[in-house]
Amino acid sequence: MGKDVIIACDFASAQDTFAFLDKFKEEKPFVKIGMELFYAEGPSIVREIKARGHKIFLDLKLHDIPNTVKKSMHVLSGLDVDMTNLHAAGTKAMMEAALEGLTRPDGTRPILIAVTQLTSTDEERMQKELLINATVADTVLHYAKNAADAGLDGVVCSPLEAGVVHERCGKNFVTVTPGVRFAGGDVGDQKRVTTPEMAKEIGSDYIVVGRPITAAEDPVAAYRKCVAAFVD
Ligand code: C5P
C-alpha cells in the first residue's frame, strides 16, 4: 500500500470545499469526505471531487445489519471512491457482507477499513456503558484482528497504535491515522498527537490531516510540508 497524506475536508458546503481545493494547482491530494459534507451535499459532491482527479476516502462509518451494509457498500463502490469504512463493532459477519457488497463485477473494490473504538470513548464509559470488560488498548487490537480475519484491509487508529496493529495483524494491514500535528503546531481538541515524521517512523500507511492544512495560512505549503515529511 502506498503511503499518502489524506486531507480531511471537514467543510460544511461544496462551495467551501471547492474554494479550498482550487488552491491546489499542481497536486491532486487524496481527500477525506466525512458525514457533514456528504449529508449536506449528497453523492454529487463525491462525483465532482472524483471528476477533478482526486482520490477519495469516504468516511461514513457504516454500522447496521449485514444485509443493509452490503447493499449500501454496493452503492458506495458505484460512486468510485478509493477508500471507505465501517464500525468493527458491527461484527465479522457485517464486515464480510460489506466486502461482498463493495466488490465490483470486475473484482476491484475500494480499500475497506474499520473503526475500532472511537477515540472519544474513554475506558470508564466503555466498561460501564458498553459493558466491555477489557482495556481500550486490548479492545482496539481485538477489533483490528476481527477486521483482518473478516478480510478487511486495515483500521483507523492513532499513529501511536500503528506499530502494535501491524505486529498483531501483519505489516500489510493498513493503518490510517488521524491526530497528526506539526511540531510546535496548535493541537486543538486532539489529545494524543504525533508529527508526520513520527507517524512515518512508527509505520502509519496513511495520515489523515485536517486543520493543520485546511486552516493554514498557506494550505498548499502545509500540504507539501506534510508530504515531504511523511512520504518522500
Ligand atoms: O483537523 P484534524 O487534523 O484534527 O482532523 C482529523 C480528522 O480525522 C477529522 O476529520 C476527524 O473527524 C478524524 N478523526 C480523528 N480521530 C479519530 C477518527 C477520525 O481525528 N479517532
Structure at a glance:
This protein has 232 residues and is an alpha/beta fold. It has helices at 14-21, 35-41, 43-51, 66-78, 91-102, 123-128, 136-149, 159-169, 196-202, 211-214, 219-230, and strands spanning 4-8, 30-34, 56-62, 83-87, 111-115, 154-156, 174-177, 206-209.
How is this structure best described in words?
- It is a single chain.
- The chain is α/β, with parallel strands linked by helices and 232 residues long.
- Helices cover 44% and strands 16% of the residues.
- It has 11 helices and 8 strands.
- The chain has helices at 14-21, 35-41, 43-51, 66-78, 91-102, 123-128, 136-149, 159-169, 196-202, 211-214, 219-230, and strands at 4-8, 30-34, 56-62, 83-87, 111-115, 154-156, 174-177, 206-209.
- It has an 8-stranded parallel barrel, surrounded by 6 helices.
- Helix 4 runs parallel beside helix 5.
- The model has no long low-confidence stretch (mean pLDDT 95).
- Bound molecules: cytidine-5'-monophosphate.
- Cytidine-5'-monophosphate binds at residues 8, 10, 34, 119, 156, 178-179, 188, 190, 208-212.
- Residues 8, 10, 34, 119, 156, 178-179, 188, 190, 208-212 line the site of cytidine-5'-monophosphate (C5P).
